[in-house]
Write a structure and sequence with these properties.
By secondary structure, this protein is of the alpha+beta class. Helix content is about 30%, strand content about 25%. It has two domains: about 140 residues, no CATH class; about 325 residues, no CATH class.
Length: about 500
């Protein structure tokens, strides 16, 4: 073998795995003979047990020196501006809640033997209680003065989901020109085929949300009366959340040629492989927030899964096992939709559908031009949106409204919390996340990863966990970037 080629292959194998993986974080009090030291030792031991089991949750990012805190992109965006006092306290509280939630699922996914060995008295319940207790103890002593608080601000950051070493090795400045050409052709085709009208007659299944059209209170009342914490984040009751999700739930219309086009629920098969159960029609939902022109706006995320995007032929680089889509509605301050978006669960094919309240900025600072289409002009209180998806590829063909009171025959779908995917029944006595430690759903890799690896995206085309969606091959862009919307749009009444 040519020596240069050999070096290239070895380097690719070594560097191709260099992406963010959740790391164990150690408190500086570890080893101290104090309550803080005992708590630091507890977190270190728990992290070791989780690491050995291979079940570290990758959705949020660990923070150096703070094993009881984690950050997402939204909370990390406040690190340089959060003031001392109530705002700082609420910010830390939210960072702690992210860690507690992640640890809840990691503990639930620990093998029974590991739970017994780690904490033999009362098992997982006692471990969880100590997570909360020890987090509070360490938090009390970690932020007693201004310097300590500033150290945290400096440590809170979110990693991007692009692998620099791949871009260097793949001669990104050159290869990106070929990628850009493909993106341009794809976007041109989408603009020609997309419509705000119902698609032509096709064999389809409509999926209808199992909700009432007469919900109280109205979304406008919920958003305008919601309390806010010291950071400015809205705080909704569980009933308010349910009403919002129910009110804006879409109809899914899927051109159907086989079981691969049927919406289902992720599960672990008897032989411990991921699968989609099409006998359970579930739409998963997740709250998020965005920062737009000095305001924090609420986002509703609806996530569906399909068993596959079937290959057209053996060399089809886009087809493969399991497919899915996220539909996101960003609500304005008065409870009306401001922006709709769709993206596949791989982070691919991200599309924006702004309402009449938004206009595209003249100058957009993204290397890859966002694909902006158009939302239909309609009164959201009178209509419900229909998302029409093509067979096999599940590309969005149409986004169009139908009267809210219209009786539409179809398959009824139920809702479930997206976080349930972080701990699914794996065997008779064990649970496991649907996502691996690198955020990828095992077995969903596509052949396109061999062509697009120089873009720096980990396994392009593979299904991945919320918080880890890179949505551009040119430059960098993330679906959960809290400033994403502000970088592309402004209000129509803005100067």
């Amino acid at each position: 073998m040519n020596p240069c080629l050999h070096i290239f292959i070895v380097a690719f194998i070594i560097l191709s795995g260099c992406t963010y993986l959740p790391q164990s974080v150690v408190s500086p009090y570890r080893g101290d003979d104090t309550p803080a030291g005992q708590c630091a030792d507890f977190f270190a031991a728990l992290d070791q047990a989780v690491k050995q089991a291979g079940i570290r949750d990758p959705g949020e990012f660990r923070l150096k020196n703070y094993p009881y805190l984690r950050a997402d992109r939204f909370l990390a965006s406040y690190s340089a501006e959060i003031a001392d006092g109530a705002a700082f306290d609420d910010w830390v509280k939210r960072l702690q809640l992210l860690d507690q939630k992640a640890r809840f699922f990691e503990i639930a996914n620990l093998p029974p033997k590991s739970v017994t060995n780690f904490y033999s008295e009362t098992g997982a319940t006692a471990i969880w209680e100590k997570v909360v207790q020890c987090g509070d103890i360490l938090k009390t002593i970690d932020f007693r003065d201004t310097d300590q608080r500033q150290k945290l601000r400096a440590n809170v950051r979110a990693f991007d989901d692009y692998i620099l070493s791949r871009r260097i090795l793949g001669l990104y400045p050159i290869t990106s020109m070929f990628v850009a050409s493909g993106i341009y052709r794809y976007q041109s085709e989408v603009r020609k085929s997309f419509s705000n009208q119902p698609p032509p007659d096709w064999q389809k299944i409509r999926y209808v949300p199992a909700v009432s059209n007469h919900l109280q209170p109205y979304p406008s009342d919920i958003l305008q009366t919601a309390g806010r914490d010291a950071i400015g984040l809205p705080e909704y009751s569980s009933n308010d959340q349910r009403v919002l999700f129910d009110y804006f739930a879409p109809f899914w219309e899927v051109q159907t040629e086989g079981d691969f086009d049927r919406i289902g629920a992720p599960f672990w098969t008897a032989d411990k492989n991921p699968g989609i159960d099409t006998n359970r029609t579930i739409c998963f939902r997740r709250f998020s927030f965005t920062r737009f022109r000095g305001e924090v706006l609420t986002q509703l995320n609806y996530v569906i899964w399909f068993p596959a995007r079937p290959k057209e032929h053996a060399l089809d680089i886009l087809g493969g096992f399991i497919d899915g889509l996220i539909y996101r509605v960003t609500l304005d301050r008065d409870g009306q939709p401001l922006l709709y978006e769709t993206v596949h669960n791989c982070g691919c094919y991200h599309k924006f559908y702004p309402t009449d309240r938004l206009q595209v900025l003249k100058n957009i600072d993204y290397a890859e031009r966002p694909l902006v289409l158009k939302a239909p002009s309609a009164d959201p209180d009178a209509v419900r949106m229909v998302i029409a998806l093509k067979t096999r590829t599940h590309y969005v063909k149409s986004l169009y409204p139908v009267p809210r009171e219209m009786q539409i025959a179809g398959v009824s779908y139920a809702f479930a919390d997206y976080d349930q995917l972080r701990s699914l029944k794996y065997s008779e006595h064990a649970h496991r996340s649907f996502f691996g430690e690198g955020s990828i759903v095992a077995g969903t890799e596509r052949l396109e990863r061999y062509l697009l690896w120089p873009t720096g995206v980990l396994s392009p085309g593979a299904m991945r966990q919320w918080g880890r969606h890179a949505v551009a091959f040119m430059g960098k862009r993330h679906f959960d970037d809290p400033n994403l919307m502000a970088k592309i749009f402004q209000r129509v009444d803005s100067p």
